[in-house]
Design brief:
This protein is an alpha/beta fold and 373 residues long. Helices cover 33% and strands 18% of the residues. The protein contains eleven helices and 14 strands. The strands form three sheets. Strands 7-14-13-12-11-10-9-8 form an eight-stranded parallel β-sheet. Strands 2-3-1-4 form a four-stranded antiparallel β-sheet, with helices on one face. A two-stranded antiparallel sheet has the order 5-6. Strand 5 and strand 6 form a beta hairpin. Helix 3 packs parallel to helix 4, helix 6 crosses helix 7 and helix 10 packs parallel to helix 11. The structure holds phosphoenolpyruvate (PEP) and manganese (II) ion.
Length: 373
């Protein structure tokens, strides 16, 4: 059961204490208070957990501070929308708003290799007015003989250069809890030059201990990649592990599903699920066209498969595009065939702007039609 409080009732207020004393009347029920800072307002919610089926809603609804009480049935009670009964307020990080309305593009290297390539990438992003990026330091690879990423050795120059070029958020995969300590240490050494979004890769989508660990820390938001070979429901439950540990600053990123039916793409593009995840959860939804299609091949219309998949995600309402770029894809140590080049950045962003404008116009037209009906 979720008790949603009226706007601007804060977590520490006497009203919340009174509500908790009402909750304490019911044996086997525990309460967790969550304050969510969204773009336009701060929302306080009290989650009643345990045997709540016998708990009546009226004693809570009667309280002055309560807006409404929602009974939840889905297993993912923290991230769920519960049939539209709770808002998708999103979150703010590094002065940026991440929610179901905004769109951020995070182009960057699949795997950090040289300082020069990182700097070339960041310079191009700054020139294009982009402040979000991806940089892989810890790479989970299918073969133990493949490049495993530079790990903590590259963090000092990645964070220092990010600060230099005004990058606010670096999405970076972690595959072990020790990586978060290493990121904390390296970031502190630069005086917090940038921000980091901890990426949980598709291969770790059900690494429950790692999910709990990133959920227990509050410094960094989490970018959760959908599990490539599990159901959507299973991925949502995995996200719930993060949220249930206390961190609700999560973006769910679609990245294609593993099935040979998707050939010749690396994965079967699943971006038609963007609106589905927005309906089912409160999370902003990202797409990763690079890892979905896996190859930057040209279609006869002159657009690459990466451009087409990006557009499919955006026209479906995606809130984040995580995309591989490399100054010299032929020399990339990981996923070169799917990387766009620095020269392709500006036209790619212009293409995104076109599709986004179209999406917003479609949304406005539907809203107008609904108002007129
Ligand atoms: C990545 O984004 O670098 C990556 C490995 O993605 P995924 O976990 O989706 O394969
Ligand atoms: Mn990759």
């Amino acid at each position: 059961m979720i008790v949603i409080l009226k706007p601007d009732v804060r977590k520490e207020s006497p009203e919340v204490r009174q509500l908790l004393s009402v909750a304490a009347r019911y044996p086997g029920v525990s309460a967790q208070v969550r304050e969510i800072t969204g773009a336009t307002r701060t929302l306080t919610e009290v989650y009643l957990i345990g045997s709540t089926t016998v708990v009546p809603t009226e004693p809570f609804e009667e309280l002055e501070c309560v807006e409404r009480v929602v009974r939840v049935s889905e297993k993912y009670r923290m991230i769920g929308r519960h049939h539209g009964q709770v808002e998708a307020v999103g979150f703010q990080y590094q002065g940026l708003t991440f929610d179901q309305e905004t769109l951020h593009v995070a182009p960057g290297l699949c795997a950090v290799d040289t300082r020069g390539n990182v700097e070339a990438m960041f310079r191009a992003l700054r020139d294009a007015g982009i402040t979000t990026t991806r940089m892989g330091a810890y790479k989970p690879r299918t073969s133990p003989y493949d490049f495993q990423g530079l790990g903590r050795d590259c963090l000092p120059f990645v964070f220092e250069l990010a600060g230099k070029y005004g990058i606010k958020v670096v999405a970076m995969e972690v595959t072990h809890e020790s990586h978060i300590d290493e990121i904390n240490t390296a970031l502190d050494a630069t005086g917090g030059a940038t921000g980091v979004m901890l990426q949980i890769g598709t291969r770790n989508a059900q690494n429950f201990e790692l999910l709990k660990f990133v959920g227990q820390q509050h410094r960094f938001p989490v970018l959760f990649k959908r599990g490539m070979g599990i159901t959507l429901e299973e991925s949502l439950n995995a996200c719930e592990y993060v949220a249930s540990e206390g961190n609700t600053q999560i973006i769910l990123c679609l990245r294609g599903m593993k099935t040979n039916l998707g050939d010749p793409h690396r994965n079967f593009v699943d971006f038609a699920h963007v609106p589905v995840v927005k309906r089912l959860t409160r999370l902003p939804v990202g797409v990763d066209p690079s890892h979905s299609v896996g190859r930057k091949e040209l279609a006869p219309d002159g657009l690459t498969d990466v451009h087409h998949a990006t557009a499919q995600g955006i026209i479906a309402g995606a809130n984040l595009v995580l995309v591989d770029f490399h100054p010299r894809p032929g020399e990339a140590l990981c996923d070169g065939p799917q990387a766009l080049t620095i020269e392709e950045l500006k036209p790619y962003l212009e293409d995104i702007a076109l599709v986004r404008e179209c999406y917003l116009k479609r949304k406005a037209a539907i809203e107008r039609a609904a108002r007129a009906a």
